[in-house]
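During the reporting period the student researcher (J.K.) took over the structure-prediction task from the postdoctoral fellow and processed the backlog of single-chain submissions. One of the processed entries is reproduced below for the supervisory committee.
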Amino acid sequence: MVKILAIGDPHGKLPKNLSSIIKKSKIDLIICVGDIPPVPVNFRKNNKTGSFSPAFKKMADKSYKTIIKRLCSYKIPVLTLRGNMYLGGEHNKFTKRIFNKYKNLHHKRTGKSKINGIDFVFFDMIWEPHYVRSTFQKSQARSNSSREKKINKLLKGNKGAIILSHSPPHKVLDKTTSGKHIGSKILLRAIKKHKPKLVLCGHIHEAKGEKKIGKTKVINLGESRYKVIKL
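J.K. obtained the following structure tokens:
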């Protein structure tokens, strides 16, 4: 049996008594579904470039480093996504520098890692045309055909796989407070086609919960929440 501690979008906070949870539950690996820094409340963001204000960036970078260091300190595998807050050139370079420090940390934008005999398929944040909300997101919502082909290739013939996706699948645990469904259509198509065992996601905090797409279980972990999963 493999015991997983799955953590929702931290946004600057990890679960209380994290060390106790890991020790008591005898956790074998940790999964974080993205958006590690705090939400930029009262800090302006440039919607044309996607850049944060210098004041927020400084605070967020420090928080990012602290949380990754804490998660990796337990000397067990850590699988993480970036999420939608740290996308783009400067942010990718920053997170890559942090991730490369830790040998027990696994991250791929779209890819696969096999740990304890389980295939974990990564599908990090990707803007899709139906739910862009800013000029920056619109500029990033280019053709996603290559990533769709890649996730289908990774899942082909692998019904035991676990998908780590920042965004939920479209119309499944993805409804915002405004009533819109902004989940990933690419992910939904891949789930229906390949029927993986489990999908762990976050991003839409207000839609946290569990649902099924056929035999595939989908868990939206929300914000700063966690779940111990036994496989």
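The committee noted the following: Helices lie at 18-25, 54-72, 89-99, 135-140, 145-155, 185-194.
J.K. will present the remaining backlog at the next meeting.
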